[in-house]
Specification:
about 300 residues; mainly alpha; 3-stranded antiparallel sheet; 3 strands; about 70% helix; about 0% strand
Length: about 300
């Protein structure tokens, strides 16, 4: 050890501003290498100064010892560790913002409704699980369609909760979860999309694609706030259903479709109203089809 000027633990502590007991802790944790004198005292090579300064700085940023060891050993770059730590902090902030939003949503309710809101909002405490509930519901509804088409529908029509969602958005989302948990709404949605009680659908997959096209065609009218009315958009929609059953667009066929739709179940309307509240988009797949159903009502009456 004659060719290297070693530092005692006290000297290392003085040069770095790190307490002696902390230096010992880092040594015992394997983060600092130390040699021993014949009398058993720890001594350090000069490079330990830079290593300990880096260690201390990383710890001041809240980075864990395991990640610091990776940086010191060269297993991971400093950039990688910093980026991973930042992602972790973002997740923590999102969780805190969501918790605050949930508390505000309960707090903002009238005192006699706070228990009700607490029970309802329990469904959105885990936002990923809540989103999965909606995704599962719609995947079952759209089973005949290929995965890419279903994914496109989901991206446009199934909202995700923002970490700092307003209380009314949290309540709307929680109401969506409660709605799709009711087996009756699954039947109502299924019937509204397909007019299922009108028999003879030959190719359900083709029907769903064509109905989607009809909804896209009417979206500008819905966005513009135009009231439902007979016209080429409705004619196209009725023709789709007639063709799918080898039928013709006749007054009796329209009446049969309308009886099947029954003006659309109120729960279906409520579902799409809530979705509009969450997305801010007036023309969702649901609202456009409901516009067509209402236009059908107008054409028959």
């Amino acid at each position: 050890m004659t060719h290297i000027t070693y530092l005692t633990i006290g000297e290392l502590a003085t040069r770095t501003g790190v307490a002696v007991r902390t230096v010992r802790y880092y040594c015992d944790a394997g983060l600092l290498d130390a040699a021993r004198t014949p009398t058993g005292h720890r001594v350090f090579e000069p490079g330990a100064v830079d290593r300990l300064v880096l260690l201390r700085r990383l710890r001041s940023f809240g980075i864990g010892l395991a990640a610091i060891e990776d940086v010191l050993d060269g297993t991971r770059s400093l950039a990688e560790v910093i980026a991973a730590e930042r992602v972790g902090v973002d997740d923590e902030l999102d969780a805190l913002n969501r918790r605050r939003a949930l508390l505000r949503a309960v707090e903002s309710a009238a005192p006699d409704r706070q228990d009700e809101h607490l029970n309802l909002l329990a469904a959105v405490v885990d936002p990923r699980a809540a989103h999965d509930v909606l995704v599962t519901f719609w995947r079952r509804q759209l089973t005949p369609l290929p995965a890419a088409a279903v994914d496109g529908f989901l991206s446009m029509n199934v909202p995700e909760l923002a970490p700092d969602a307003h209380p009314e958005h949290l309540l709307a989302y929680a109401e969506l979860i409660a709605a799709v948990s009711d087996p009756e709404i699954a039947t109502a949605v299924y019937d509204t999309i397909r007019h299922r009680s009108t028999p003879g659908i030959r190719d359900e997959r083709r029907l769903l694609f064509d109905v989607a096209d009809a909804c896209v065609a009417v979206a500008p009218l819905v966005t513009a706030g135009q009231p439902p009315r007979p016209g080429p958009e409705l004619d196209h929609y009725v023709a789709i259903h007639a063709t799918a059953r080898d039928r013709h667009d006749t007054p009796s066929f329209r009446r049969q479709l309308l009886v099947d739709a029954a003006g659309a179940d109120h729960r279906v309307r409520r579902y799409w109203h809530l979705t509009t509240t969450l997305t801010g988009e007036a023309a969702t797949s649901g609202t456009t089809q409901l516009w067509l159903v209402d236009a059908l009502t107008a054409s028959v009456t």
